Sequence to fold (184 residues):
Amino acid sequence: MGQYRSRNTNEFLIKCNSNIAEKIAEELVIENADGSVQRKLTAALGLSERLQNYYVVANPVSFSPDNRYLIVRLDVFDGLNKSWVNHIILDTLNNYSVLAFSNCNGFESNSYLGFISSSEVVFACENTSEPGPIEVVDLTKRSRQKISTNSNSKELLKILDQVRSYGLVSAEFVIVNEQQFPPR
Fold:
């Protein structure tokens, strides 16, 4: 994306227009092991409503050990100067509905670390200036527990030792629209 005048004045300014947020195109495809499509969902993530004024790239990350939950990473950009990473948790038994956002309240971003059980997932809470605690999200109890990473507690070491990712998850970018400019 660029500004129209940049072609005429050699001012190669690349700037997103934050006043015109394009509608997020959503499609989630679940395939069987043989590659046949099991389910194709559009607007499954609900991002058009939740993040309508942002630019978002969503990538599946991991299933839970029992395939009940799917973690999706969201790279979010506000169109000006702020970006962050967040994750959503989809419930596969309820038509892939959004069960929870993992937001590590009070922190700028988070990273997915893995599952420690079929219903407990671990995220690292992060700020640009310093690392934060880890957050254990219990999907059955709908609870969150923050554990400090400043100490080598037995609880922290036990959790980090149990962290695993499951399933074959892939994400592909597809060109939806292409515009060619004539040579000067």
About this structure: The mean pLDDT is 74. Helices lie at 5-9, 47-50, 154-162. The chain has three helices and ten strands. Residues 145 and 180 are 51 Å apart (CA to CA).
